[in-house]
Amino acid sequence: MNALPRSVTVHSASRLLRIEWDDGSESALPHALLRARCRCAFCTKAARAGAAAPDCSGVVLTEAHAMADAGLNLVFSDGHRRGIYPWAYLRELDEGVS
Fold first, then answer.
1. What is the separation, in whole angstroms, between the first and last Cα of the chain?
2. 55-94: per-residue pLDDT in tens?
3. Distance CA 87, CA 84 (A)
4. CB-based burial of residue 61 (10 Å sphere; 0-12 exposed, 13-18 middle, 19+ buried)?
5. How far apart are CA 56 and CA 77, in angstroms?
6. Which letter, b or e, does each residue of 11-31 get, where b requires 16 or more Cβ atoms within 10 Å of its Cβ?
7. What is the DSSP string of 9-75?
8. CATH number of the domain at 5-97, please?
9. How many other C-beta atoms can be found within 10 angstroms of the C-beta atom of residue 72?
């Protein structure tokens, strides 16, 4: 079974989303990575159509809303708010950063 979060904190200054998991591990995910790796229908369609990846280097995560046991809905400074990031996907992204 996948670990679930114990706490989630948005750090604006460091531009990191920190997740403390119930298995004792911690994830520190850069805001730009989270925005660039959005899997919402709009972003997935654009990627499949061959659209250039957006420059997310200046994007900041402004809000994180828990979606019960499903994951997080993330809101970014560029106005993007469609993505739901399942807990398992956030762990997968962390493994790619580490």
1. 21
2. 999 999 999 999 988 999 999 999 999 889 999 999 999 9
3. 9
4. buried
5. 10
6. eeeebbbebebeeeeebebbb
7. EEETTTTEEEEEETTS-EEEEEHHHHHHT--SHHHHHHHHTTPPPP--TT--EEEEEE-TTSEEEEE
8. 3.30.2020.30
9. 24
Contact predicate 31/96, CB 8 Å = no
Q: pLDDT tens digit string along 12-66?
A: 999 999 999 999 999 999 999 999 999 999 999 999 999 998 899 999 999 999 9
Beta sheet of 61-66, edge-to-edge order: 61-66, 71-76, 84-86
